[in-house]
Structures are given as structure tokens and as C-alpha cells.
Model the fold of this input.
Amino acid sequence: MASFTFFYLHALLLLSLATITFSHDLSPSFYNHVCPQALPTIRCIVEDAIKQERRMGGSLLRLHFHDCFVNGCDASILLDSTPTIDSEKNAGANNNSARGFEVIDRIKFEVDRVCGRPVVSCADILAVAGRDSVVALGGPTWEVKLGRRDSTTASKDTANSNLPNPLMDLSKLIENFKNQGLNIKDLVALSGGHTLGFAQCFTFRQRIYGDKDIDSKFARQRQANCPMNGGNSSLASLDPTPAYFDAKYFKNLVKKKGLLVSDQALFTGGQTDDLVQLYSRNHGAFSNDFAKSMIKMGDIKPLTGNNGEIRVNCRRVNYY
Ligand code: HEM
Ligand SMILES: *[C@@H]1O[C@H](CO)[C@@H](O)[C@H](O)[C@H]1NC(C)=O
Ligand SMILES: *[C@@H]1O[C@H](CO)[C@@H](O)[C@H](O)[C@H]1NC(C)=O
Done:
């Protein structure tokens, strides 16, 4: 009897260990058996969307980032407003800025069709679409860990407090990333996401009119398309080659041509200068570290096991 009880407890212990170690961890092979066509389908639609508009790659990468920083990578950013959902789309950093939602809708529709049922989460779609975007624009690849589930809630307030803003100085940026379990290297490497895409005038006006720490010719060029008053939404690229994943973002920081205050903050005499120098000279080092940090960011507080759900429509929670 005693030995049976011991055996039983032992089995129970092993079982719970197995649950902790296996089913609650993300894994690149999560959909291999349940829907092997899922990942190629996502890539295909991402490539198609980028062929139509190169900017979309950056927009999709940013969606994954803005998802992960608000209660983890759980597709909370995709939920539309309802009486019970306070949509993150209305948060300061996202309103009239976050884009690519229609592409995610298309991916979800196609993936559910080829899989025959909704087995792939919207959160995983964001993570894979971000990776595929980087690859399509010439950047590094990495194995995306999978098995995230989708939230049934969203929080505009959490988005407002967690998403970094473009006026932050280095210590605020470090603190902001630290709150997500990301270190200084992650901050610098992931900021390299600004090798892609565009920013609106109102996000960099202070920088090009107020800062001393800026190349004066660069400031004048940017001022031409971003007046002191008005023109809030006119666009400037975040680096000189917004459709190529390259090291130009870091080369620009070294030349004091960072577009956002938060970009130049990484190279302004502080503890991240050396890393910026390294990435500006060594594209391989940047690519490697970017891939590693993307995996780390994708690991932020995922919903797994029986938590959350697999949404049928990425824009709303399932109803039963
Ligand atoms: C470090 C703190 C960060 C701040 C303060 C910041 C801020 C911004 C701002 C203000 C914009 C322009 C938005 C607009 O004008 O509509 C932007 C765009 C962008 N951000 Fe960040 N960002 C940060 C980190 C990141 C990270 C970690 C990534 C991805 C790994 C990323 C990827 C992008 C991309 C790709 C765009 C261009 C989007 C497009 O063209 O649609 N950013 N960011
Ligand atoms: C979002 O932007 C629209 C303008 O397009 C504005 O009317 C609305 O008040 C903004 N929402 C928030 C929450 O700031
Ligand atoms: C332009 O942006 C600034 C800074 O965000 C804001 O204070 C101002 O109200 C905006 N102007 C218009 C016309 O939307």
C-alpha cells in the first residue's frame, strides 16, 4: 500500500512536470502535425502583401512588437472595440499608426481554410508574419516558437503605459524594456527594427527642431517635409533604406542622423554607444542579435495550455 501510494505520487509528480516542461512551452514544431501547411501559407501571403507594398513588412513586424509589450504575445492588439473590449488600437502609439490588420485577416482566413479548422492562433500568426517580413526584406531568419493562444481581453491603458514613446531618453528606454524582461542588448538590437518603415512628422518634430545632437543638414532636410505647424502625418523613412533590412539604421545613428529622439538616444555618449558602433560596422552581428532578441520578445508571457483561446476572427473573441 505504501509503495503503491509512493508510485502513485511519483507518477503524479512526473505528469505535472511533463505538463510544465512540454505542453506549456512554445515550440517551432507546434503545427507540424496538426497543420503542416500553416507556415508556408502565412509566408505566401506576407510575400504577396510586401510585393504590393514594401512598407507592409515593417508594419507587420511592428504589430508583433506592439502585441508582445502589452500583456504578452497574445494578439490582444488585434481586438476591435466593443462594449467590453477597450481596444489597444486606440492607444497613443497605435491610433492612426498601427497598420497591417487587413493582411492579418487575410492570413487567418487562408490558414483556417487550408487547415480545415481554426487551429492556428492569431498571436502565432503575428510572430510568423513578423519573421517572414524581415526575411522578405533581406534580413535574417530564425525559428519562430509556436503554440501561443489568443487573449479574450485587451487593454488600451496597459498599451498606453507599456509601449515606449519616441521622446524617451536612454534610461527610460532601458527601464521600459527591462519591464518586459529584455536587456540593454535586446533594446539596441530590436530598435534595429527601425531599419524598416516610416514615421509621421508629429513623432519626430521635436527632434528636428529642438535637438542639438543632430546632423544639421539632416535636420534641415527633414524639416522641409515636416513643418513646425501642421503636416502631422507626413512621412519620413526611419533610415535611408526603409524597404531593406540592413545596418543603415545604426550607421545613421553614428552620424547623428537618427530620426526619433529615442533612436538617437542609443548613441549619445551612453552605455549603448559601443553596441551601436558594432552593429553599424558589422551587419552579421546585428542580424544575429536581432534574431535572438526577436525569439526572446516572442517569449513574453504567452498564453498556453488551456489559457486563452484560438480565435476564429482575430478582431473579436469567440462566443460560445
Ligand atoms: C525602442 C523603442 C521604440 C520606440 C520609441 C518606437 C517608436 C516608433 C515610432 C514613433 C514609430 C513611427 C510611428 C508613426 O509615426 O506612425 C515607429 C515605427 C516603427 N517601429 Fe518602432 N519604436 C520602438 C521600437 C521598435 C521595435 C522593437 C520594433 C521592432 C522590432 C519597431 C519597429 C518599427 C517599425 C518597423 C516601424 C515602421 C512601421 C511602418 O512603417 O508602418 N520599433 N516606432
Ligand atoms: C484616434 O484618432 C482619431 C482621428 O483619426 C480621433 O478622432 C480619436 O479621438 C483618436 N482616439 C484616441 C483614443 O485618441
Ligand atoms: C499635431 O501633433 C501635435 C503633437 O502630437 C498635437 O499637439 C497637435 O494637436 C496635432 N495637430 C493636429 C492638427 O492634429
In short: Residues 55, 58-59, 61-62, 65, 97, 99, 164-166, 168, 173, 190-191, 193-194, 196-200, 203, 260, 262 surround protoporphyrin IX containing FE (ligand 1) (CB under 6 Å).
